[in-house]
Design goal:
Length: about 130
């Protein structure tokens, strides 16, 4: 039902109803719905922005091996969005999402692992990492 409302398939598009159905499914433990609920909280889709709630739902989804949820946790810990900035947690979730097959996470982990700094040089990782 959530996707029908979200995409307006067979019914008028309704972001609020889509969010309600994603949340119902998330509460039932469906990893993809938990991920979508987290995204909705980040992107103001049918609800208000709530970074802390987004983190909770991404965590629940990532515990079920959802690679996108794990990658979003990585970004939240890097940016301090809904959590205190924590590079150890960020790298942990980056490694998890990479191991689950997330291509952006694999790329970013490869950049970090191959990073070689010459004496006195400064590298801006933001130019090389997938966001």
């Amino acid at each position: 039902m959530a996707l029908l409302y979200a995409k307006g398939l067979g019914t008028p598009e309704n972001k609020v109803k889509a969010f309600e159905w994603f949340l119902k499914s998330a509460l039932q433990g469906l990893a993809s719905a938990q991920y979508k609920t987290g995204l909705n909280y980040l992107q103001v889709y049918g609800t208000e922005v709530n970074d802390s709630e987004a983190k909770i739902w991404f965590l629940e989804s990532a515990k079920q091996d959802h690679k996108e949820a794990a990658f979003n946790l990585n970004k939240m810990y890097i940016n301090g969005q809904g959590v205190a900035p924590n590079m150890i947690e960020a790298i942990k979730w980056l490694k998890i999402s990479a191991a689950l097959g997330h291509e952006g996470a694999q790329h970013n982990l490869n950049v970090i692992n191959n990073l070689k700094l010459e004496s006195g040089s400064v590298i801006n990782l933001n130019d090389q990492l997938v966001k």
